[in-house]
Amino acid sequence: MSFSERGEDPIKELLVVKNLKKYFPARGKLLKAVDNVSLSIDSGETLGLVGESGSGKSTLGRSILRLIEPDDGEVIFEGADLRKLKEEELRQKRKFMQIIFQDPLASLNPMMTVGQNIEDPLVIHNIGTREKRRETVVELLDIVGLGKNIIDIFPYELSGGQQQRVGIARALALNPKFIVADEPVSALDVSIQAQIVLLLNELKKRFEISYLFISHDLAVVKYLSDRVAVMYLGSIVELSSKEELYKNPLHPYTKALLASIPKMPKNGNPQKRFSALKGEIPSPVDLPPACRFQSRCEYATGACKEQEPVFREVAMGHFVACHLA
User: Fold this and answer.
1) How far from the centroid of its chain's Cα atoms is residue 190's Cα?
2) Residue in 76, 74, 90 with CA at minimum distance from that of residue 13
3) Are 18 and 24 in contact (CB under 8 A)?
4) Percent of the chain residues past pLDDT 70, beyond the cut
5) Which of 100, 59, 95 lies closest to 77 in space, CA to CA?
6) Spatial contact of 287 and 32, defined as CB atoms under 8 Å apart
7) pLDDT digits (tens, 9 = 90+) for 245-283
């Protein structure tokens, strides 16, 4: 099996998400985990998605893939609305949409060997003979930097970094066009994180894969992403190219997140930083009125407490939801 070509020309906008919503019942109210989110990802592009824990990043990624069923909105992949597809149609589309999970060991079947875990998507989709699938597994292990000597051992016998490489190999098995990488390095040691990030970047270039790269580490996101979306309490509050976002952040929340990136001093002098973010993230069950960031924003005005800001384009390709931008 060859992973070099898919036999068709890629379309520019591979994925378009429109007004996506996912609410959960909680204490007689609704927890708005994903609230009216819109975004797009081009072929071969990486969109970084950042925000604090509890902001809805993972729920958004899983809702896009329909691992969690959205309540409203559209998820258009290669021109087809995934929410309108029938079971078999969705099954065929899913060959081209995969996910890499945060906890590599928990995402692998402990009763299967490494080879069986990687081969499983091929078995499910009835691709190839047993011998051909074995050849594909060996090829995938080589692609992710592992040897075929581990093919018949179990995931728990591997290190965390090796387990995540196995998870990546499994995600590659069906030659996908789009992968949700859900904090794929946060559970790993720092040195191993760098290796996995480099591998993901190499695979992106080699196979023209599009990523939704979910992380709370803005330094990693800056390296891997083409554009960055900032998520807060279920909504996207800022989106732009990574160069523009890191050079000219407009939303106070984005500025606070950037301030949290550790920085080495220059010539022994501390670098200027934004004010650190204060307070705890509010409950998504009881959202603040109007601007949902106003309770933590040092710049909040009366308008921020009375009217919800519109997510609008303030410069070419730079979108923000803030009255003060």
Assistant:
1) 19
2) 76
3) no
4) 92
5) 95
6) yes
7) 999 999 999 999 998 777 666 665 555 555 567 777 888
Our measurement of the distance from residue 318's CA atom to the centroid of its chain's CA atoms, rounded to an integer in Å, reads 19
Q: How far apart are CA 71 and CA 59, in angstroms?
A: 12
**Of 278, 203, 116, the residue nearest 124 (C-alpha):** 116
Burial class, 18, CB count within 10 angstroms (exposed 0-12 / middle 13-18 / buried 19+): middle
**Which residue ranges form the domains of the chain, and what is each CATH number?**
13-320 (3.40.50.300)
Place of tokens 């952040």: 249
Closest CA relative to residue 258, chosen from 246, 266, 240: 246
- Sorting pLDDT into bands at 50, 70 and 90, what band is 5? very low
Residue at token pair 């204060």: 278
What's the rounded mean pLDDT across residues 96-100? Answer: 97
Q: Which residue has the higher pLDDT, 5 or 292?
A: 292
Pairing of strands 72-77, 178-182: unpaired
Q: How far apart are the first and last CA of the chain?
A: 51
Q: Which helix (H) or strand (E) holds 168?
A: helix 160-172
Tokens, residue 172: 């590659």
